[in-house]
Design brief:
Largest sheet: none
Structural class: mainly alpha
Number of helices: 11
Number of strands: 0
Distance between the termini: 59 Å
Order of helices and strands: HHHHHHHHHHH
Length: about 190
């Protein structure tokens, strides 16, 4: 029964991260986490935080997520969601702080690194953004949001067109029917060659 509760908790963690962030779930995310026994009260708080995040009640979500990490700091999802909630409130300093804590727990976590990359890109820290995306891609090379965001960073911000084209082509290989990406690849191919 405990194992089932634990698995349900991790599914909720991944659901929260995917609901609040990217539309594509990281591959094999359940396999990446060590088995961590989670208290049922923490689980309840996490479910409440999920509801607040979905309702864009960021202050309430932050309070619950901070309570959760005070009790349980071994999994990255609460830190990621804290980072995203602070980012939604315009507090990039706290957003970065919590996203970095998530990355410290799991260096290549795709959602944490994607969010960190987006935050760094917004701040004009393009080398840091590229490093965050690259960290995620080392173990999650097919995680579409990171592939796309690295391509956008390379094309529009650091003007590395071969890097951008490589990312866009990789994205298109994974999602061959994506019309927008087909246009991006076609346009960039003409400019690179």
């Amino acid at each position: 029964m405990k194992l089932l509760k634990l698995l349900l908790f991790f599914l909720l963690l991944m659901n929260l991260v995917s609901c609040v962030t990217d539309s594509t779930k990281p591959p094999n995310e359940m396999e990446k986490h060590k088995m961590v026994e989670i208290d049922s009260d923490v689980e309840d708080d996490f479910n409440s935080a999920l509801s607040h995040l979905k309702s864009e009640e960021y202050d309430e979500a932050i309070l619950l997520l901070e309570k959760i990490i005070a009790e349980e700091d071994r999994v990255p999802a609460p830190f990621i969601n804290l980072g995203m909630a602070y980012n939604k409130k315009g507090d990039s300093e706290n957003a970065e702080k919590y996203l970095l804590k998530a990355v410290n727990i799991e260096l290549t976590h795709p959602v944490a690194n994607n969010q960190l990359g987006l935050l760094y890109r917004k701040k004009g820290r393009f080398n840091d953004a590229k490093k965050a995306y690259t960290n995620a891609l080392t173990e999650h090379p097919d995680y579409l949001p990171v592939v796309k965001n690295l391509g956008i960073l390379c094309e529009l911000y650091i003007r590395d067109f071969p890097c951008a084209l490589q990312q866009y082509e990789h994205y298109l290989n994974l999602e061959p029917e994506n019309k927008t990406m087909k246009i991006w690849v076609s346009d960039l191919s003409r400019r690179v060659k």
